[in-house]
Amino acid sequence: MTRVVVALLVLLTGAAPPAQSPGSRLLVLNKTDATLSIIDPLSGTTTAVVPTGPDPHEVTTSADGRLAIATSYSGNALSVVDIAARRETQRVALPDLRQPHGIETVGGIAVFTAEGNRALAGYDPAANRIAWRMATEQDGTHMVTASRDGRTLFLSNLGSNTITILERDGEGWRRTHIPVGSGPEGLDLSPDGRELWTAHSGDGDVSVIDVGAKKVVHRINAKTKRSNRLKFTRDGRYALISDLDAGELVVVDAKTRAIARRLRLGSMPEGILIPPAGDRVYVAVTGENRVVAIDVNTLTIVQTIQTGRGPDGMAWAAAR
Question: Of 169, 202, 227, 253, which is most buried, counting CB atoms within 10 Å of its CB?
Answer without folding.
Answer: 227
